[in-house]
Amino acid sequence: MLIAYAIGARGPEVLPTLGPDGVERVPPEARWIDLYIPTAEEEALAQAFLGAEIPSREESQEIEFSSRFYAEDGAVFMTASVLAGIDLGSPVLTPFIFAVSGERIVTLRYDDMRAFRSFLARAKPSNGCEDASGVFLGLIEAFVDRTADVIEHVSGEVDRLNREVFVARRDARRRGRRLSALIGDIGTHGDLASKARESLASIERLVQFANTMLKGIYGKGAAGNRMKLALRDVRSLEDHVNFVLSKINFLLDATLGLISTEQNEVIGVLTVAATVVLPPTLIGTIYGMNFDDMPELHWTFGYPLALLAMAISALLPYLFFKRRGWL
């Protein structure tokens, strides 16, 4: 899908791209083209509009710096990894490509992004969206704001998990099952926080590259101040998400440690029970052999004495373990 926008005093405005003959074309007053899973024909229109070749999806997913940030044919290409699919419960990092040539800008994306929709909803002149630099910086700010919201959500969930992990031990059996279930929640939020950190790192590289390559356009006046503020916000969020990730790692270690402790307690109880029962079992086994030369078998009080010996042999280890605090 190709959407062409004019950028002026009223902010971005959608332009018709279908001519009277039904052929899709880019209007001459267009200043911004947004490509969403484009066809080959739409890519060709965008390339003619920009005057440079648009990178393919495979090229945009490469991790080399030179593949994500470069200048070619008078255009500057920048790719950021942006969070998508969070509302659907399947967060992914998807490439978002900026291609800037003078006052013309092309954006290329392959997933629907909440941050992009939020930007379009508030893209007004009062928010600085009066030219290509306003669109570029507005999108960067929208991605940073969305990532900040995700980190705030993860931070709140980590606090909740922290309370659940360290609750009072009322029901050991139910708590053990709950701790096992919490490991999955901790892993899910840890994965989301890791993706947020990776996205912030890519946005930071993009802003730094844009500040170098587009300084003549976006590095002056209000645009330059917005660029510096966006970079400062990204770095502060990186510090925060690193703190959240350290808390998640601590929670994971603590949860595994508590599960191991409870398993050890169960094994300890079983060990004590086996130790308590072992002496009576030994006595009963001895007197169950029925040899002819066993005078105790003919005693009148042999049976109750054997029971008493078994009871005492079981009681003594129990009292010993109780005194040592092992029960």
UniProtKB/TrEMBL annotation:
Membrane spanning stretches: 266-289, 301-321
Catalytic activity: Mg(2+)(in) = Mg(2+)(out)
Superkingdom to which the source organism belongs: Bacteria
UniProt-listed SUPFAM superfamilies: CorA soluble domain-like, Magnesium transport protein CorA, transmembrane region
Gene Ontology CC annotation, any one: plasma membrane
Membrane topology, record value: Multi-pass membrane protein
GO molecular function annotation: cobalt ion transmembrane transporter activity; magnesium ion transmembrane transporter activity; nickel cation transmembrane transporter activity
UniProt subcellular location: Cell inner membrane
A Pfam family this chain is assigned to: CorA
Keywords: Cell inner membrane, Cell membrane, Ion transport, Magnesium, Membrane, Transmembrane, Transmembrane helix, Transport
PANTHER family membership: MAGNESIUM TRANSPORT PROTEIN CORA
Family per similarity comment: Belongs to the CorA metal ion transporter (MIT) (TC 1.A.35) family.
Entry protein name: Magnesium transport protein CorA
Organism, as annotated: Prosthecomicrobium pneumaticum
